[in-house]
Amino acid sequence: MRIANAAGRLVLMTPDGLGLDVESASDGRFGADPQGVYDRWDEFRTWADTAPLDAAEPIADGDLRAVTPRPPQVFAVGLNYRDHAAESGFELPAEPLVFTKYASSFTGPTGDITLSPGDVDWEVELVAVIGTGGRAIAEDRAWAHVAGLTLGQDISDRVAQFAAPPPQFGLGKSYPGFSPVGPHLVTLDELRDNGHDPDDLELGCLVNGESVQKSRTSEMIFTVPVIIARLSAIVTLLPGDVVFTGTPAGVGVGMTPPRFLQAGDELTTWCTGIGEMRHRFVST
């Protein structure tokens, strides 16, 4: 199953890329708000299995918004790929390095993003969305708590991030538009049915058509189930929470010389089984 946010309305995506308006198709049983569906995830999945797909309509790419427009909590994991830790000059972490991003930075999978005053960098990431919350979730049960996977960018202002010790990860990565996610939320069974292993997805990004990041999620130090187990050992996870799982090597700050996004640059972000995002960067 795939769902999306089309101009602020929850839609169920068909195999041929059409979108079914959930509120209309369910006769109001489920609302139009894309964020609200996570509170009734199991019930929604049962309904979606027999939804009347004949009423689905084309969805324009420009109408797509963030699949989680108002997540109650946002977690992000730093240095979760060995090659990225190496290019950053850090030792491998013994535990997930967790910080938070702010929901006001979320945006959809296409459109313009305004550059912040500092050096703006890219970070492609697999993003997990919680469907069933809880505490003390066992690692071997963690996937059952995931509604689905989507694609994200943890765009970072490196000046704001490292302005003073200790680093301000959350602030430096939360300017407006610095957390694009999409284009769809894809359930684990949908990925597997189409030949994709949720633990081994290929992802990457390009700047102006040049590949700058490319890796597989099997290269993560801490897998999605491990991250969920570690988080829920301390925090109560809530339906609709978002977890950015880290970025591989190839970020601009790790290049020699460093390279950062400029006005007019186009950032293309992709992940097998999930889809693609495209953003253009503009000056203030």
Description:
- With 284 residues, this protein is α+β, with helices and mostly antiparallel strands.
- Helix content is 15%, strand content 32%.
- It is built from 7 helices and 19 strands.
- The strands form 3 sheets. Strands 1, 2, 3, 4, 5, 6, 7, 8, 11, 12, 14 and 17 form a 12-stranded mixed beta sheet that branches. It has a 5-stranded mixed beta sheet with strand order 9-19-18-15-16, with no helix packed on it.
- The longest helix has 9 residues.
- It starts with a strand and ends with a strand.
- Based on CA inertia axes, which overall geometry fits? globular
Number of strands: 19
Mean pLDDT: 97
| Major beta sheet summary | 12 strands, mixed
Order of helices and strands: EEEHHEEEHEEEEEEEHHEHEEHEEE
Which bin fits the share of residues in helices? 10-25%
Structural class designation: alpha+beta
Low-confidence stretches: none
* Relative strand content: 25-35%
Gyration radius over CA: 18 Å
